[in-house]
Each structure stands twice: as C-alpha cells, then as structure tokens.
Amino acid sequence: MKRFGKAQRRASRRIGPYDPATHRKRTPSNRWKRAQTQVARLHATVAAVRADAWHQLTTRLAQQYDTVAVEDLHVAGLKRNRRLALALSDAAPATLRRQLQYKTGWYGSVLHVADRWYPSSKTCSRCQTVKPKLSLSERTFHCDACGLSLDRDVNAARNLAALVRHVDLESPGDVKTGRGACVRPVSPAPAGRATGVEASRPLAANAARQRTAANHELSNAQ
User: Fold this and answer.
1) CA distances from 49 to 52, 53, 58, 146, 197 (A)
2) What is the pLDDT of residues 64-120, one digit of tens each?
3) Is residue 5 predicted with pLDDT exceeding 70?
C-alpha cells in the first residue's frame, strides 16, 4: 500500500490528459505516461502474487485431502465493517471457494459447503454448547459449560470437521444435520481423470478437441 500511494501521488503531480482549471482535455506528458505505467505494473504484480498464492493453496488442499469443508459466509455484510473491508477484499473468499469447487472435481476429492447460519464459532467443539453471543474481538473461545479454552478458528475448524463426518454417516439424500445446518457436497470427478498438471480448459473441451482432430485425420486418410 505504501508503494501504491507513492506511485499514485507521483502520477497525480504530472500533467495528465485533463486540465482541472479549464475543464478541457490536453495532451498528457511523457512523465505522466511513465507514472501511469508504473502504477499499472504494481497492480499487475499484486494481482499475479495473489492469484499464485490462491492457486497454490487450493491445489494443495484439493490434492492432499479427500474432503474439504468451507463455510458460506455473508461477505457483503462483513465488508460493512470498515476495519475488515480491505482485508476481506484482499483475501477474496469467493475466489477461494470457486477454485476449490472445480479443483476438488479435478483431483477426486469432495467439497462440503456449510450453511451460512451454522454457528461454527459459537459452538463448543467438546460439549456442543452454543454461546448466545461471541464478539469478533474474542480470539479465544472459552466454554462456560465444560471449561474448554481454545483458539476460535481452531474450534470452528473442529466443528466443521465434525459436521462433515456427521453428514457422511447419513444417507446421500439427507444432508440435514441435527443442528439444522445444511451441507452441500460437490460431486468429485471420476478417479484417474483428475490427475496431472492443471489445464486452462475443462476436460470436456479437451475431449471434444481430440475427437475433432481424430475425425479430421480420418477424413484426410480416406
């Protein structure tokens, strides 16, 4: 952010294509063009680093684990908090879920999406007691019933893991848990078709392209 601010302040001091005094267009200077190029390079660098980090994380999760569980959070409501809006926008949770959804199909794992109203952070992972209120500033979960003291994120992860295990024991058509939370499993791809290097095209598109090439070669041979 410091580099962004410095580059944008430098660009604002150059002679740009718009004159605020006369409200008319003008020819931008070469220094303004170089400053804009530097700002664009910073944007591209941040986008590339963020995309690389997300792809490495989601690929590792989809390859190393048979089951991955995520929560369907109300991100638009969370962004109303001005202290969390920038961090949430940089984290891009929707991108994480989207990549996990198709990569679990590639590598043969299963993605479970917990319901938005499932109290994963408020529920004690030991005795299943639900707290009536848990503020965001409380980073450590303390259970008044059994005395459990645990990091709130670890406690939520254990609850999600227990929720997925409970759903797996039920019938495929019944995905309702005892607490009323709904977990939507995403069907994996057939075994043997999801290995290898990630491709930018779906498997169906690659198969169709191979069939087209085979038909073309056959027609040439005839």
Assistant:
1) 5, 6, 14, 44, 20
2) 999 999 998 888 888 888 888 988 888 888 899 999 999 999 999 999 999 888 888
3) yes
Residue 177 makes CB contacts below 8 A (sequence gap 6+) with 163, 166, 167, 183
What torsion do the CA atoms of 56, 61, 62, 65 make, to the nearest 10 degrees? Answer: 150
Distances from the Cα of 124 to the Cα of 88, 112, 116, 153, 168, angstroms: 26, 21, 18, 12, 21
Rounded to the nearest angstrom, the gap between the alpha carbon of residue 82 and the centroid of all alpha carbons in its chain is 21
Q: Is a pLDDT exceeding 60 seen at residue 175? A: no
Does the predicted model carry a pTM greater than 0.85?
A: no
Three-state SS across the chain? CHHHHHHHHHHHCCCCCEECCCCEECCCCHHHHHHHHHHHHHHHHHHHHHHHHHHHHHHHHHHHCCEEEEECCCHHHHCCCCCCHHHHHHHCHHHHHHHHHHHHHHHCCEEEEECCCCCCCCECCCCCCECCCCCCCCCEEECCCCCCEEEHHHHHHHHHHHHHHHHHHCCCCCCECCCCCECEEECCCCCCCCCCCCCCCCHHHHHHHHHHHHHHHHHHHC
Question: In degrees to the nearest 10, what's the CA dihedral of 135, 141, 146, 148?
Answer: -170
**What single letter denotes the amino acid at residue 218?**
L
Output the pLDDT for position 165: 81
Is 50 exceeded by the pLDDT of residue 191?
A: no
Could you report the per-residue pLDDT of 17-40, keeping only the tens digit for each?
988 888 899 999 999 999 999 999
